[in-house]
Design the sequence.
């Protein structure tokens, strides 16, 4: 099966998001996917479990996290939250240094064989500190989605 992209919409993108923990922001973003019918209830439990076992915080100049899982995913999707205040995530590199994520990019994928391809693209694009600074200063979800589409291209599909 070839990779066709992650479905998203303005309702899957949050700006000025308030969350007190990694679990809270993951539940917020996963809840949006559940409302849209992209995931089953079990997805929320599985993505939280995976985040604890395999943290996804990246020590980029503007720190980010990329939680993801395939369990319970009915349709590959993408969601994102620009946080009002950074939230602590574990570091993907396995170090004990916490990542204070300013942006969380969450996705679910139906075919786990595409996960590495998506993560590689995200990691490449989100090394651009200017882009990340622009994203965290964007207050409109539609504008933010347009900027993300410009950066990620065919990796996300706006519906």
Sequence:
């Amino acid at each position: 099966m070839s990779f066709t992209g992650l479905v998203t919409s303005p309702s899957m993108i949050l700006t000025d998001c308030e969350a007190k923990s990694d679990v809270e922001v993951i539940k917020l973003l996963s809840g949006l996917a559940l409302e849209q019918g992209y995931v089953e209830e079990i997805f929320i439990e599985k993505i939280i479990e995976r985040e604890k076992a395999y943290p996804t915080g990246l020590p980029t100049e503007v720190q980010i996290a990329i939680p993801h899982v395939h369990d319970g995913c009915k349709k590959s999707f993408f969601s994102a939250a620009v946080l009002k205040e950074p939230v602590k995530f574990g570091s993907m590199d396995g170090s004990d240094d916490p990542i204070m994520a300013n942006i969380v990019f969450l996705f679910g994928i139906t075919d786990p064989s595409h996960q590495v391809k998506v993560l590689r693209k995200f990691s490449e694009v989100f090394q651009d500190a200017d882009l990340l600074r622009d994203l965290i200063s964007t207050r409109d979800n539609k504008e933010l989605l347009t900027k993300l589409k410009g950066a990620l291209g065919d990796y996300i599909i706006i519906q």
Q: What stands out?
A: The chain has one domain: 6-158.
